[in-house]
Amino acid sequence: MADSRRRIAVLGSTGSIGRQTLDVVRAFPDEFRIVALAAHGNVALLAEQAREFAPELIACTGDDPAIQRQLDDLLPDALRGIESLTTAATHPDADIVLAATSGLVGVLPTLAAIRAGKTIALANKETLVMAGHLVMPEARRAGVQILPVDSEHSALWQCLHGEHLPEVRRLIITATGGPLRTMPLEQMRDVTVEQALAHPVWRMGPKVTIDSATLMNKGLEVIEAHWLFDMPYEQISVVVHPQAIIHSMVEFVDDSIKMQAGLPSMHLPIQDALSYPRRLNRAGTALARPLNWPEVARLDFEAIDLDRFPCLRLAFEAGARGGTAPAALAGADESAVALFVRGELKLTEIAETLETVLQRHEYKAEPTLDDVLETSRWAQEEVLRLRGLPASGRITKANA
Q1: CA angle, 313 then 172 then 16, to 5°
Q2: CA 342 to CA 385: how far, in whole Å?
Q3: pLDDT band at residue 170, thresholds of 50, 70 and 90?
Q4: Are residues 76 and 164 in the same domain?
Q5: Strand order in the sheet with 168-175
């Protein structure tokens, strides 16, 4: 009997989204099968995942000598190097590519997967932030679906089912406000890495968590929503919702609003993307988490304070300008966050640094993919130069 399960390639399998994707596969073994796993440097966990799921292809992009030694010991048959991500993304047996790599490296393999006709379950913000003007037309030409995995975009996507875009007044993206929402503004300059990483609701990797502390993550989500739903920036807004029960909302021209609600968990948006257009019954699985409204008790909503979160303003401005501006923003943010985590940049200096880089970058209105990647590389390096550090950023060329 033929195996009817959906076959999945997971890019970023050892990260937060990748691990939760494998939770969904465990919960529904009759629905899904893993055919490829790709990760960066957590070789021990990748080896455990490989033993459990027996994929046909294993890839590791880390080039550190210690990683290579671990691979020799634990996964000698694994593909190596950054190009192995694209090999995993275009695996001939994969139906769906779960793109969950962190940062800028996800652009090329996602484009390759689209050209190979794969359905994309997208959890990598930078792909559309940097190259939405290229990725979305490519997906339309290939007849490929891009299904959102971020909880906010999944909520918008679910609310828009069966609706007509001309009847949408605005998309409303919710934000918890992160760990610094109530901190006095004058204290934010001296925020420690530990404070910024102490997210009150979500458990994520360091890059996304720091972006949550600055609200850059919401800025990137705004740009991503613009491309996913073909919505003008003036029809996208952000509101603080600390409880993270309402994941986003759609307001229509008749003043009605649809909201998608659920307990904070990435398992549901991952599951919905993998199983679309079906909804799988989670009752009796390890993922079951029904929402008990009396226990929620109250829901709060607050306006965004852009003095506290200037990164959100910069993202709106870069998105509206288009061209290479979002790529410069994303590249600069990647380096600035890394410097903050290393203790070489203050949290409030992240926005100051991004603004300087945006002003200095060589703007192109209609960039090619190589233009986008080169702008991101330049922006990463420019952040280091601004701090008097050696510029060593590197992004693979599109035609490499």
Answers
A1: 80
A2: 16
A3: very high
A4: no
A5: 236-240, 168-175, 246-252, 257-261
- In three-state secondary structure terms, 287 is coil
pLDDT higher than threshold 90 for residue 400: no
Looking at residue 104, the DSSP 8-state letter turns out to be G
Domain holding 54, by residue range, is: 6-149
Question: Per-residue pLDDT for 204 more than 80?
Answer: no
Q: Give bridge partners of residue 213 from the DSSP assignment.
A: none
Bridge partners for 172 per DSSP? 237, 249
* Same domain, yes or no: 72 and 115: yes
* Exposure class string for 25-51: b at 16+ Cβ within 10 A, else e: bebbeebbbbbbbbbbebbeebbebbe
Place of tokens 């993202």: 315
Q: Of 29, 30, 38, 39, nearest to 9 (Cα)? A: 38
Q: What mean pLDDT do residues 122-135 have?
A: 93
CATH number of domain containing 79: 3.40.50.720
32 pLDDT exceeds 50? yes
Q: What is the mean pLDDT of residues 130-135?
A: 95
Q: What is the mean pLDDT of the chain?
A: 93
- The answer to whether residue 187 scores a pLDDT higher than 90 is no
Residue at token pair 């739903």: 229
Spatial distance between the Cα atoms of 261 and 115, rounded to a whole number of angstroms: 34
Place of tokens 């993270």: 244
**Residues whose CB falls within 8 Å of the CB of residue 111, separated by 6 or more in sequence, listed in order:** 131, 134, 135, 138, 369
Report the residue count for the chain.
400
Q: Amino acid identity of 3?
A: D
Average pLDDT over residues 149-162: 96
Asked whether the whole model's pTM tops 0.85, one would answer: yes
The residues near 195 (Cβ < 8 Å, ≥ 6 apart) are 179, 180
Contact (CB, 8 A) for 170 and 251? yes
Domain membership flag for residue 397: no
Assign residue 309 a region: left if phi > 0, alpha if psi is -120 to 50, beta otherwise? beta
pLDDT per position as a tens digit, 349-383: 999 999 999 999 999 999 999 999 999 999 999 99
What's the total number of domains in the chain? Answer: 2
> Hey, what are 223's tokens?
């740009």
Distance between CA 94 and CA 246 in Å, rounded?
33
* Alpha-carbon distances, residue 163 vs 47, 147, 278, 282, 301 (angstroms): 44, 17, 18, 26, 25
What's at 121, amino acid-wise?
A
